């Protein structure tokens, strides 16, 4: 029964080996790379392989250490403590995935500090307690190194606390396999979608904030597979999400109409 639910993940390098050894050695892991390149899917897959629970937190500018560690809430006449997801993961030995960790408030980085070195402990300041991490607790964070694009940076002193793996757009053959496996789209359309993806990725002069991710190509494949005309599928799933600039939209649509 279990195997039916294994998330589909196509390896692109040695990431599985690195993950397994990081887990075995209780080292925190940083997944670097642009959005939509399979980081979250990889974590889901690895959690399955290692038979561990995964707790995901999508970090944003309001994410604070309180959100992660826990808080007191008022229940009737009493004040009770509620563990946050980080505390739960530390106690239960789950994999905690901090998606886009650099976006979180700086106190989040401070909170995870003692969990990322030999101490492997969490200090809960509101309780005045320090808890030792469960044997199997693992901290994984993702980070989008999109320097000039308005993404936040991660300090070198923080980065150096993690073992890191780079994610990028997969090579053409692998990417079209992903599209086929993920959506059942026909192989000719998959190939063409990957060609479009790579053409747009190479157009660095357009200055797009984010370029075509595998996620966008997966979306286009789904639309094609469900019967939407191919060009319309690409326009809607790939081109429109990229930009609002009318001229750029036209240029990208022309480019894709030459391919599909
Ligand atoms: P990220 O976390 O890097 O933003 P995701 O893991 O959410 O990206 O990937 C976006 C989508 O792209 C996934 O839902 C999946 O359909 C597809 N995908 C990307 N890379 C892979 C891969 N290596 N194997 C399987 N699916 C992938």
Give a written overview of the molecule.
The chain is of the alpha/beta class. The chain folds into 2 domains: 15-166, P-loop containing nucleotide triphosphate hydrolases (Rossmann fold, 3-Layer(aba) Sandwich), CATH 3.40.50; 172-259. It is 42% helix and 17% strand. The protein is built from 11 helices and 9 strands. The protein has helices spanning 15-24, 39-49, 65-69, 85-92, 106-112, 156-159, 172-183, 187-202, 214-225, 230-239, 246-259; strands at residues 29-32, 54-58, 70-75, 78-83, 95-99, 121-124, 129-132, 138-143, 163-166. Strands 2-5-8-1-9 form a 5-stranded parallel β-sheet, with helices on both faces. It has a two-stranded antiparallel ribbon with strand order 3-4. The protein has a two-stranded antiparallel ribbon with strand order 6-7. The longest helix is centred in the C-terminal third of the chain and has 16 residues, at 187-202. The radius of gyration is 21 Å and the shape is elongated. The two termini are 39 Å apart. The mean pLDDT is 94. Adenosine-5'-diphosphate (ADP) binds at residues 8-10, 12, 35-41, 178, 182, 214-215, 218. It comes from Flavobacterium enshiense DK69. It holds the Pfam family CbbQ_C. InterPro entries: ATPase_dyneun-rel_AAA (IPR011704), CbbQ/NirQ/NorQ/GpvN (IPR050764), CbbQ_C (IPR013615), P-loop_NTPase (IPR027417). Residues 175-258 form the CbbQ/NirQ/NorQ C-terminal domain.
């Amino acid at each position: 029964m279990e195997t039916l639910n294994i998330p589909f993940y196509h390896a692109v390098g040695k990431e599985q080996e690195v993950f397994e050894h990081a887990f075995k050695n209780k080292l925190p892991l940083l997944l670097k790379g642009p959005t939509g390149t399979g980081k979250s899917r990889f974590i889901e897959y690895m959690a399955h392989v290692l038979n561990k629970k995964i707790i995901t937190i999508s970090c944003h500018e309001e994410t604070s250490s309180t959100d992660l560690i826990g808080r007191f809430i008022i229940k009737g006449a009493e004040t009770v403590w509620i563990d946050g997801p980080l505390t739960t993961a530390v106690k239960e030995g789950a994999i905690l995935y901090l998606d886009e960790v650099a976006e979180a408030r700086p106190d989040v980085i401070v909170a995870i500090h003692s969990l990322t070195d030999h101490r492997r402990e969490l200090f809960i300041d509101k309780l005045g307690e320090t808890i030792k991490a469960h044997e199997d607790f693992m901290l994984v964070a993702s980070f989008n190194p999109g320097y000039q694009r308005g993404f936040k940076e991660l300090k070198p002193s923080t980065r150096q606390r993690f073992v890191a793996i780079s994610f990028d757009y997969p090579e053409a053959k692998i990417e079209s396999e992903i599209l086929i496996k993920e959506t059942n789209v026909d192989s000719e359309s998959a190939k063409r979608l990957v060609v479009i993806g790579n053409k747009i990725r190479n157009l660095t002069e357009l200055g797009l904030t984010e370029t075509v991710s595998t996620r966008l190509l997966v979306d286009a494949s789904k639309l094609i597979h469900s019967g939407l005309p191919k060009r319309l599928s690409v326009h809607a799933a790939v081109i429109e999400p990229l930009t609002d600039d009318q001229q750029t939209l036209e240029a990208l649509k022309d480019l894709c109409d030459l391919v599909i």
